[in-house]
Amino acid sequence: MIRYLYTCLLLFVSPIFLFGLYKKKAGKPSIGARWKEHFGVTPKLINNAHRPIWIHTVSVGETIAATPLIKALKQANPDTPIIITTTTTTGAQQAEKLKDIAEHRYMPLDLPFAITRFLKAIQPQSMLIMETELWPNTLYYVAKFGIPITVINARLSERSALRYQKFQSIFNLLANNLSLVLCQHQDDADRFIRLGMAPDKVQITGSLKFDIHVPDTIKEMGSKLRNQFNQQRPVWIAASTHQGEDEQVLIAHQKIVNHHPSALLILVPRHPERFNDVYQLCLSHHFTTVRRTENDSELKNTQVYLADTMGEMMLLLAASDVCFMGGSLMGDKIGGHNLLEPAALGLPCITGPSYYNFTDITNQLTKVNAAFICDNPSDIADKVDEFFSSKTRRNECQQRALSVIKRNQGAVSKTMAAIQQVAD
Known about the structure:
- This protein has 424 residues and is an alpha/beta fold.
- The protein has helices at 2-22, 60-76, 89-95, 112-122, 136-144, 158-166, 168-175, 186-194, 216-229, 246-259, 275-284, 313-318, 340-344, 359-367, 377-388, 391-408, 411-423; strands spanning 53-58, 82-86, 103-106, 126-130, 149-154, 180-183, 202-204, 235-241, 264-269, 289-291, 304-306, 322-325, 349-351, 371-373.
- The protein has two domains: 20-211 and 409-423, 3-Deoxy-D-manno-octulosonic-acid transferase, N-terminal domain (Rossmann fold, 3-Layer(aba) Sandwich), CATH 3.40.50; 216-408, 3-Layer(aba) Sandwich (Rossmann fold), CATH 3.40.50.2000.
């Protein structure tokens, strides 16, 4: 009955969801003729000699985090097709980078007819869900088709656990269809079990995001971009900023420029539809601003470099000295973003006080003084100034951050072993 009521509600709200998904926005990839895939009208895989492994990664961040596992799965199962589904067009764009080893399809809406069409067309042998993207109809019909479902890199915040507790019957509806939940941390596992998940279905494999590898090509490209800026000038990056944060970052940059006149800010808004607005905001603060898409080779006098592209975060981090991570100055709205990419590149990391989505990672880095919490633009400016003024301090942060990452690596191999158990 609960699932029936949910399906009726979803039928009413789907047009609103699809309108937001299909609405054209500057910098946002278009879904084009592939909109039918959201209704389960899904092309069969090119390689359909064997039933595929299905991995759902939602959007860009999840696809990037799942990439080492996807590569390991392909290496272990060279003859088995892999299909990646995402909900967003930006996620599709990221998945396209793995086209040599996996095919991409859009995730169908969580409606019975769409899910069953998809399953009949693709016929997966197993489903891996990245993190905690749990949809009632999807789980029900996948399990009904006899397909094991494993949640990988699972995390469950205390806030989400308390919400599920208020609607325990809904959690039970989801959990009963899961074969295995592979959690990032012990506290995630404890919350799943507290909500009623059978302990023998819960394992701790660590965070896949710790199994991060920075390709030499990224470092080389970062160095080339840094040469365009001028190697000697100090550079900081504000990554994945949200509306309401950009202005605070620009205020901090003004204070930094007062102490370091040649300082450059690389500003990376989280959402492509905001690129134009953020550009105008930079100009209104009287900063000399260049957009990355302008391909301007003369960047030595630029004060703000606006990254109005997608999927280049690692490259931009590699051209920086210090990183501020966005989504963390917005109270409880966002809950921060992942500090592992800047940490893996050896950057001192700064975050605002709201980072509940990445509590464990942030706490591990702050505990060893590889990351720092700043409450306002003035504090951010002071901390950036501190690292601009001391290469020794930056080097110390690098070593501390890399030690945290090394200590937590191994999630890919643990996840592979657990997945194999389900397959057997």
